[in-house]
Specification:
alpha+beta; Heat Shock Protein 90; 3-stranded antiparallel sheet; Helix Hairpins; 347 residues
Length: 347
C-alpha cells in the first residue's frame, strides 16, 4: 500500500516527483526525524509500491535537510559566541598586561595590573606587578643616590668657587672658573637625564612655539646666531618643563658642537608635530647617529671634548616618554638636523 495519497506533490518537490517518473508520489513530513522528512513511493512493475524516505531531493540529485542545516547553523553560532567570550576572557588581561609592559620607562607612576582571567594569566600579572615594583624601587634608589652625590659635590664646588673669587684676575682664575662651571653643568645634566620622565610633571597644553622663541631669544642675547622660523603658536599637550629642558639641550648641542647659523623650525606632519633644530656644522655620519643618542657617548668628529654626552640622550628620553621619537639627519645648512616628533594628542 502506498503511504501517501495520490495528490499533487508540494511545489518544492514537484521537480523531484517528475524525475521519479509517472505515478510517483512524494510529500513532506516536518514532524519526522531529520533525514526522513521526505516521504515517497514508486509503483513497482508487478504491483505494489517501493517506499522510501530521504532528507531532501535536490535538483542536482544531492541531499539537503533544512532542519538539519538550521540546527547546524544554530550550533555553529553558539560555538562562535562562546569562543569569542572565552577568547576575550583570556586575551583581555593579556592586552592589559602588554599595555602595562609598554608603559614601563614612560609612566613615572606605574599602575599595577589587575589580576583577572585564567590562573596562568593571574600568575603572570602578579609576577609583572612585583617586577614593576622592583624596577621602580631600583630607579628611585639610583635617582636618590645621584641626587645625594650631586648635593655632596656641589658643596666643595661652592667652596672652590668662593676661593677662586679671591684670586687675582688673570688666565689662571678664568680657567678655574671655567672648570667649575663645566663641572656644575655636568652634574646638572646628569640629574636631568636621570629625572627625565620620572618627575611626575603633569601633561598640560603648552605653546611649543613660545618655548622655541624663548630659547632663540636667550641664545641671541648671548651673541649666537639662533633664529626661530615657524608659526607663532603651536599648542599641544606636553610636560612643559621637560620639553624646554629637552629642546634647550638640542639647541645647546647645536651651538656647542655645530656652527652658526642655528635654525629652529616647527613642521606639521599630520598627527605629529616635528620640531627641527638645524646647524651648519660638520654633522654626524649616518653610521654614528644611533650611537650618538646613547648616554655618555661622545663622537670625536662632532664633539669638542667638553660635556658628558647627555644632550641628545636627554632629548631622546623625553621623546620616548612623550610617545614620540628623535631623528637625526643632515640639515639644509650642511650640519646636523635633529627632529623631535611629538604627538598632537596625549597618549
Amino acid at each position: 500500500m502506498a503511504p501517501l495519497p495520490a495528490t499533487a506533490p508540494p511545489e518544492p518537490l514537484a521537480e523531484a516527483a517528475a524525475r521519479l517518473g509517472p505515478g510517483a508520489r512524494i510529500g513532506w513530513d516536518p514532524k519526522a526525524e531529520p533525514g526522513h522528512r521526505v516521504l515517497g513511493a514508486l509503483p513497482a512493475e508487478d504491483g505494489g509500491w517501493i517506499v522510501f524516505s530521504a532528507p531532501w531531493l535536490a535538483a542536482g540529485g544531492g541531499a539537503l535537510d533544512h532542519g538539519a542545516i538550521s540546527s547546524m547553523v544554530a550550533m555553529a553560532l553558539g560555538i562562535a559566541l562562546v569562543s569569542i567570550l572565552v577568547v576575550r576572557w583570556i586575551t583581555g588581561p593579556l592586552r592589559r598586561l602588554a599595555s602595562a609592559a609598554d608603559r614601563i620607562g614612560r609612566d613615572p607612576s606605574p599602575r599595577p595590573v589587575a589580576m583577572e582571567g585564567p590562573e596562568e594569566v593571574r600568575h603572570a600579572a602578579a609576577a609583572f606587578n612585583a617586577m614593576q615594583d622592583r624596577i621602580a624601587r631600583l630607579l628611585e634608589d639610583r635617582t636618590e643616590a645621584l641626587a645625594a652625590m650631586s648635593h655632596d659635590l656641589r658643596t666643595p664646588l661652592s667652596r672652590l668657587q668662593l676661593r677662586v673669587g679671591f684670586l687675582p684676575e688673570g688666565e689662571d682664575r678664568a680657567r678655574l672658573e671655567a672648570d667649575i662651571a663645566e663641572m656644575e653643568s655636568m652634574i646638572a645634566r646628569t640629574l636631568d637625564y636621570i629625572r627625565e620622565g620620572r618627575d611626575a610633571e603633569p601633561v598640560r597644553p603648552a605653546d611649543l612655539a613660545a618655548i622655541l622663541q624663548t630659547l632663540a631669544s636667550d641664545a641671541a642675547d648671548q651673541g649666537h646666531d639662533v633664529v626661530y622660523e615657524g608659526p607663532g603658536r603651536a599648542v599641544l599637550p606636553l610636560r612643559r618643563i621637560a620639553a624646554k629642558r629637552a629642546l634647550s639641550n638640542l639647541v645647546d648641542n647645536a651651538l656647542r658642537h655645530g656652527c652658526s647659523p642655528v635654525r629652529l623650525r616647527i613642521r606639521d606632519e599630520g598627527p605629529m608635530l616635528a620640531v627641527e633644530v638645524a646647524d651648519a656644522g660638520v654633522g654626524i655620519a649616518e653610521a654614528d647617529r644611533a650611537r650618538a643618542v646613547a648616554p655618555f657617548v661622545q663622537l670625536d668628529p662632532a664633539r669638542s671634548g667638553s660635556g658628558v654626552g647627555l644632550g641628545l640622550a636627554i632629548a631622546q628620553r623625553f621623546a620616548q616618554a612623550s610617545n614620540g621619537s628623535l631623528e637625526l639627519g643632515e640639515s639644509r645648512e650642511g650640519g646636523l638636523l635633529a627632529r623631535l616628533l611629538l604627538p598632537r594628542q596625549a597618549g
